[in-house]
Description:
By secondary structure, the protein is an alpha+beta fold. The protein is built from 6 helices and 13 strands. The strands form 2 sheets. Strands 1, 2, 3, 5, 6, 7, 10 and 11 form an 8-stranded mixed β-sheet that branches. A 5-stranded mixed β-sheet has the order 4-13-12-8-9, with no helix packed on it. Helix 1 (about 5-15) crosses helix 2 (about 30-45). It starts with a helix and ends with a strand.
Amino acid sequence: xxxxxxxxxxxxxxxxxxxxxAAYPGPTPRDKTHAFAIQTMARELLGWERIGWKCGxxxxxxxxxxxxxxxxxxxxxxxxxxxxxxxxxxxxxxxxVTEPEIAFSMARxxxxxxxxxxxxxxxxxxxxxxxxxxxxxPRLPKGFGDVVEWYxxxxxxxxxxxxxxxxxxxxxxxxxxxxxxxxxxxxxVGEGTGAEALGGPEVVLTWLANDLIDKGLYLRxxxxxxxxxxxxxxxxxxxxxxxxxxxxxxxxxxxx
Length: 256
């Protein structure tokens, strides 16, 4: 078995079991392109249904925390998609970094067309907007102390996604101003606006549409896209309840 396939299989197995890997399954990916290839192989070996994408490190705070200067994508899976109010089972060893985010559902494909997509082009392809909470969990031994290539290979660190009720698309200028408040067990743990994520979630969505094309892929009708944390990062424990409240989008909650 090649190093790449061995790494991908270990990452797929770790996602299925929910347990962290005790040791590195192979050498560090050479670069971000190699890391994404391993991510893709792990997704294929996992055999779960991809329903969209998460965008990692779209805020300056997240980039500084994880030692990178650019976002990266990772797959979202139906097997780890939850409705607001759900109890999400996680392994006791998991990190459970809990990230209130703004998500989009796509109404139509954004296929390669010979020129980059602009924000207005991408927003015209949006079906709905949602409050969302992404649960992040690195599966490799160093956790958040690793290099970005491992984060990318490890599915961009996604564990699961909680998706709130759909809302009709907002005017373009509204997204960056969206205020978000997060509470854990009733205590305020974070506040922010949509601008935390690359200046606005519509900017993140546009970045992803073009980045996927550069990778030989594209956004598809029905895809869900979570655009990155918009409040300070915090961690949840088993038994905790998290609620996030958004201007215009309503509220969303999850319990572990």
